[in-house]
Design goal:
InterPro entries: Aldolase_II/adducin_N, Aldolase_II/adducin_N_sf, MethylthioRu-1-P_deHdtase_MtnB. Keywords: Amino-acid biosynthesis, Lyase, Metal-binding, Methionine biosynthesis, Zinc. Catalyzes the dehydration of methylthioribulose-1-phosphate (MTRu-1-P) into 2,3-diketo-5-methylthiopentyl-1-phosphate (DK-MTP-1-P). The protein is an alpha+beta fold. The protein has five helices and eight strands; from the N terminus they run αβββαβαββαββα. Strands 3-2-1-4-8-7-6-5 form an eight-stranded mixed β-sheet, with helices on both faces. It is globular, with a radius of gyration of 17 Å.
């Protein structure tokens, strides 16, 4: 892929971000969380740009050339490549949360099943799990960690509006599910975002197991 960078972005900076995104995507693919070219990943490059996975690429085989630069309106910068159709959900996080620098979106089986199961309730309420403390800002298992489940749609402005409404209501938001789709989460760096993703995968799996056991 041909990528021409703005003069304000050193090639080494973009390459570092692209490598970090590609490395994370390959690792998450080995866990089975990115089936059939699904999922998308991004990392902030500077105040006005982010590096994001190109649409339709297999996440287990990504390299530096599978990552492109976008501005925070979701427009491609210096390339004809096409970013994910869900790019608006990434740039929304970067615009609304200047301290956040990484967004990861995966489609694990656990995430997908949980999104269907809890869609009617509109959220998954996590309480009593020690691992809730893996989420930044949560210091006790006694707190309630609420993960909203938004209806699925191909119309990204509708999803963006739902996320904005949640944030505008003053509710904490560290991640959300999309019905029948998967999970979005973010953090200040790749390590924090990976920790959030892994903790949420575990917690959602626990909630699904409890549902099954209580129904048996």
């Amino acid at each position: 892929m041909s990528q021409t960078l703005p003069a304000t972005i050193p090639a080494s900076l973009f390459e570092q971000r692209a490598d970090a995104v590609a490395d994370a995507a390959r690792e998450l693919s080995t866990l089975g969380w990115t089936p059939a070219t699904s999922s998308n990943f991004s990392m902030r490059v500077d105040a006005d740009h982010a590096a994001i996975t190109i649409s339709g690429r297999h996440k287990g085989r990504l390299g530096r050339d599978d990552i492109m630069l976008i501005d925070l309106d979701g427009n491609a910068v210096g390339t004809d490549a096409r970013p994910s159709a869900e790019t608006a959900l990434h740039t929304q996080v970067y615009r609304r949360c200047p301290e956040m620098n990484v967004v990861l979106h995966t489609h694990s089986r656990t995430q997908s099943v949980a999104s269907r199961l809890f869609a009617a309730e509109g959220a998954v309420r996590l309480q009593g799990w020690e691992l809730q403390k893996a989420i930044t800002g949560y210091h006790t298992h006694e707190s309630v960690l609420e993960i909203p489940v938004f209806p699925n749609t191909q119309h990204m402005p509708e999803l963006v509006a739902r996320v904005n409404a949640w944030l505008d209501a003053g509710k904490p938001l560290h991640a959300y599910l999309i019905d029948g789709h998967g999970i979005y989460t973010w953090g200040r760096d790749m390590a924090e975002t990976r920790r959030h993703l892994e903790a949420l995968e575990f917690l959602l799996g626990c909630e699904l197991d409890l549902k099954k056991l209580r129904a048996s």
